[in-house]
Amino acid sequence: MTRVLITGFAPFGGERVNPSWQAASLVAAEPPAGLTVTAAELPCVFGEALDALRDAIRAEAPDLVLCLGQAGGRPGVTVERVGINVDDARIPDNAGGQPIDEPVVPDGPAAYFSTLPVKACVAAMREAGVPAAVSNTAGTFVCNHVAYGLGHLIATEFPHIRGGFAHVPWAPEQVPDGTAPALPPATVAHGLRALLATAARTPAEQDLKVTEGATH
174 Cβ partners below 8 Å, 6+ apart? Predict the structure, then answer.
């Protein structure tokens, strides 16, 4: 059995829910065959989110880590290719912090690439009927903070783990007027199960060689 840790965030920015945590909880409640999945909710707070992630990794000893975040406006699940070493917050986090042009890890490398097969994961979600794409930016808010921070934890403390980050769209309840893309958390969870099953059996170096590049 492959042990998986999946994380989502607490609501932020005045929202009452965060679909990343909703989807993570659903996957943990009904995991893919051959995987045991534990979900952990991370605070949407710079610094504290990485402390909570480290604690969850130590507690669960996973083989695979998938961190999730909300990306309102994106039409599908987006698997992040890279996290960058900068915090540049457009809005305050849930503790009122708003770092500007600060490193996630002082003196850390400029970026960490996902150690998941991002293109194969996207293909698996599409095969499951869930819209998905590779993303080349995780932003510069707490999501990127965790995407980069997970890469740093793997590089420095947990080298036996593979992991990465994915963004999920708003839930329908967050856009009741239908003016922006949304996906039900249950649909997102269905795609994430396909993602995790694929990631568990596919090393990053055996990722698909297909075009998923973007100009913006």
Answer: 15, 17, 19, 72, 182
60 to each of 6, 8, 55, 90, how far by Cα in Å?
A: 11, 16, 9, 33
Q: Which residues are catalytic?
A: 80, 143, 167
The count of residues in the chain is 216
Query: Within 13 A of 63's CA, how many CA atoms are on the CB side?
Result: 14
- Is 214 domain-assigned? no
Give yes or no for residue 215 having a pLDDT over 90: no
What is the C-alpha to C-alpha distance for residues 31 and 190, in angstroms, rounded to an integer?
10
Number of domain units in the chain = 1
In a domain, 87, yes or no: yes
Q: Would you give the DSSP letter of residue 151? A: H
- Determine which helix (DSSP H) or strand (DSSP E) holds 26, and give its type and residue range: helix 19-29
pTM: 0.97
pLDDT tens digit sequence for 101-140: 999 999 999 999 999 999 999 999 999 999 999 999 999 9
